[in-house]
Specification:
This protein has 399 residues and is an alpha/beta fold. The protein is built from 15 helices and 16 strands.
């Protein structure tokens, strides 16, 4: 994405965390110098952003794991072409967390100093059917629990797994899975030093609505966006930097948050669509129906400087009007960094609800039939703050 578009969306000229990265430079180098690091989910948008930042430091070894073979290949090509020196102990494996292949991979490895996890299903769309929902619960919770049980036998110096703002007072099942992911981490934190981060939407990350704007322009299709949903955004580089700051500087059971301004940093998706089109030389032309927008797109002639848009009020399940990064009962240190807040001692993980949920989900996973209602009921019991409201519409039903 062009720098000018990012500057207009983010409202800043340099990285939000630039000052903190400079202030923590010695600590970051001290943590990474000579360290052997494993990055799981390394080829997704956030995982790859983290790898790009971390690869600039003098690592002793680097292993990248991701089920997307194509994205993994592209990341390696990018790193090899960039001005970074990868360690001699460098390799990639196109495998996924929680798989039989990963079990054998882990058994064949020498100890790691740092283990970093970005493997997750992150879309609210994942709650549309019991099959995708079960995969989300397996990747986000069960496989993580199994990984930490293995790490506890041979603990690394630090374990990091990325969370989400949606874990705070969740209104969707994906957010509830991330809340449980955090609690799994805290459960094992007595054996494995753990740290996490929650942050805003990563602008133009794979599969995001903004990434969809790029694809719609390429395919000469209408842009669609909600009028009423406001979000905070950070860049790929900022996402990688926040995760690295947490890994290098965070204490056990701490969560790193971006320090953003509700008055100036929240922006609607419709406004971003307008900025995106303006930067490409177009004016948005809004339509009241999907069909009208599609017909206009089909009839566009070369040189037309209007682009069809369908902006509407959000009516899909699991959408929060605004993001939250910390819960009411969490203590946040806003003074440690210039633009980062730190949840200093995350709660949860000691209660029996988590253990019961893990047992129940593993039993469900082995059952011959998966029931959506049963899974949602289990999530509600384990995450009492879940305020999930099914509207009967999901994002797959919208343009």
């Amino acid at each position: 994405m062009t720098p000018s578009i990012l500057r207009r969306i983010l409202g800043r000229e340099e990285s939000l965390f630039q000052a903190d990265m400079e202030a923590q430079a010695d600590r970051i180098v001290g943590r990474l110098r000579g360290a052997r690091m494993l990055v799981i989910g390394a080829a997704g948008s956030i995982g790859a952003a983290f790898v790009r930042v971390a690869a600039r430091y003098p690592l002793g070894g680097l292993r990248l794991v991701d089920p997307s073979e194509n994205n993994l290949v592209e990341l390696v090509r990018e790193l090899r072409a960039a001005d970074v020196r990868l360690p001699d102990d460098f390799a990639t494996s196109a495998i996924s967390l929680g798989s039989l292949e990963f079990e054998h991979f882990w058994a064949a490895q020498k100890p790691f100093d740092l283990v970093v996890n970005f493997a997750a299903l992150k879309h609210v769309r994942a709650e549309r059917d019991p099959f995708t929902l079960m995969r989300m619960l397996h990747v986000n919770i069960l496989a993580l629990d199994e990984l930490l049980a293995v790490l506890a036998v041979r603990p690394p110096g630090r374990f990091f797994s990325v969370s989400s703002d949606k874990a705070v007072n969740p209104v969707n099942l994906m957010g509830a899975s991330k809340a449980l992911m955090e609690r799994v981490m805290w459960y094992w934190s007595g054996d494995v030093p753990t740290v996490s981060s929650r942050f805003a939407n990563v602008a133009f990350s794979d599969g995001s609505l903004l990434h969809g704007f790029v694809r719609r322009l390429e395919k000469r299709q209408p842009l669609a966006a909600p009028l009423d949903v406001r979000r905070y955004f950070i860049s790929h580089e900022e996402a990688g930097q926040l995760c690295l700051l947490a890994l290098a500087s965070g204490g056990n059971r701490e969560i790193y948050l971006p320090k953003l301004d509700k008055g100036g940093d929240l922006v609607t998706f419709a406004r971003i669509a307008e900025i995106f089109l303006e930067e490409h030389g177009y004016r948005p032309r809004c339509f009241e129906s999907d069909e009208e927008a599609r017909l206009f797109a089909a009839a566009m002639v070369p040189g037309c400087r209007e682009w069809p848009c369908r902006f509407s009020v959000s009516d899909t399940s699991g959408e929060k009007e605004e993001e939250e990064f910390h819960a009411a009962g969490e203590e946040v240190d806003w003074g440690r960094f210039a633009r980062v807040g730190v949840v200093t001692r995350a709660s949860g993980g000691e209660d029996g609800a988590l253990a019961g949920f893990l047992v129940r989900m593993r039993q469900m996973r082995e059952a011959p039939r998966w029931e959506m209602g049963e899974m949602i009921h289990a999530l509600r019991q384990a995450v009492p703050t879940l305020a999930h409201l099914a509207t009967g519409r999901d994002l797959d039903g919208k343009m």
